[in-house]
């Protein structure tokens, strides 16, 4: 996919680039190193890590897409990393700043020999989000007796995201709005309902909204929680349209298989637990009865890099362009 641009203001431009995520993938200089796939693609075992993760995705996909698939090998999930940069033209020159990365799924049907449209979104990465949660929120609450959230927290990030997904560039390449699939919150309680979707599985509802839910609502996203067949915990599906009507079964399966695999690697205490979530369920990263995957992952490094990359966003984006961003945000309307 060639780079394409969509002007959002005289001095703002989004650029979109696609990179294949396979066992030969190497993170680019514009990739957040805390991103799920980038974290796997480093170190001595990088290729085996990627190979194992991709095999897990394909096996899970075929297990869910079992109709007319007796050997469990009919489909292959192909992943694209969609990198979005933002160009700002100002008096000091032109700067391309890394903004967002998401995963796009594509499905290859070995039986028919054709590709099937998947879903964009899945994993979601953002430098501004790193800044908001790992820099701004921490500094704001330093020495405060109770945790509070700054006024207008997440407003800029939400508007940047909505601007991108409503741009002609996005609509040119993607037929459906994104689904962003995340882990459930470890400090909320979830209750299983009687509703069972044929692909997404049993729906859960939460006792109250989390800070992430509120942050994503500013991106125009609602959330529903489902535990697919043979999963052990529900996942959070953030979406802007109708989650149950806007996507094909295979598209939903591609998101489930991709993101459940990453969650098993990064949060095995929840998603690779040896027991299934009960009707009333509170996730815990302190849960000890779980299994590890054959994929190396350094959780402490990931947390440290989130702070470093949040400070990068502050240094090269938030502070230098504060006046421009505040003016654009104040006048932003879809």
Automatic annotation (TrEMBL):
Pfam families: MesX. It comes from the Bacteria. This is DUF1852 domain-containing protein. It comes from Flavobacterium akiainvivens. The lineage of its organism: Bacteria, Pseudomonadati, Bacteroidota, Flavobacteriia, Flavobacteriales.
């Amino acid at each position: 996919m060639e780079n394409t641009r969509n002007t959002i203001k005289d001095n703002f431009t989004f650029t979109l680039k696609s990179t294949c995520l396979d066992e030969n993938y190497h993170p680019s200089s514009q990739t957040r190193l805390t991103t799920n796939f980038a974290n796997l693609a480093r170190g001595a075992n990088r290729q085996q890590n990627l190979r194992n993760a991709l095999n897990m995705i394909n096996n899970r996909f075929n297990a869910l897409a079992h109709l007319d698939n007796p050997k469990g090998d009919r489909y292959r999930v192909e992943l694209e990393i969609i990198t979005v940069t933002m160009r700002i033209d100002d008096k000091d020159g032109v700067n391309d700043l890394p903004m967002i990365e998401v995963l796009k799924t594509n499905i290859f049907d070995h039986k028919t020999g054709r590709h099937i449209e998947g879903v964009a979104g899945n994993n979601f990465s953002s430098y501004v989000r790193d800044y908001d949660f790992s820099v701004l929120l921490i500094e704001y609450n330093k020495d405060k007796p109770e945790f509070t959230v700054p006024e207008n927290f997440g407003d800029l990030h939400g508007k940047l995201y909505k601007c991108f997904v409503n741009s002609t560039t996005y609509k040119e390449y993607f037929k459906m709005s994104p689904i962003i699939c995340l882990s459930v919150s470890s400090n909320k309680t979830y209750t299983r309902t009687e509703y069972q979707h044929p692909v997404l599985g049993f729906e859960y509802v939460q006792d109250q909204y989390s800070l992430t839910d509120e942050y994503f609502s500013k991106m125009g996203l609602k959330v529903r929680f489902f535990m697919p067949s043979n999963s052990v915990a529900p996942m959070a599906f953030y979406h802007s349209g109708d989650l149950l009507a806007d996507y094909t079964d295979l598209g939903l399966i591609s998101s489930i298989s991709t993101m459940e695999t990453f969650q098993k690697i990064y949060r095995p205490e929840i998603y690779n637990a040896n027991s299934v979530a009960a009707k009333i369920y509170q996730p815990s990263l302190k849960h000890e009865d779980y299994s590890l995957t054959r994929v190396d992952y350094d959780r402490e490094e990931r947390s440290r890099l989130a702070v470093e990359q949040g400070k990068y966003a502050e240094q090269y984006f938030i502070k230098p362009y504060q006046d421009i961003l505040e003016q654009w945000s104040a006048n932003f309307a879809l």
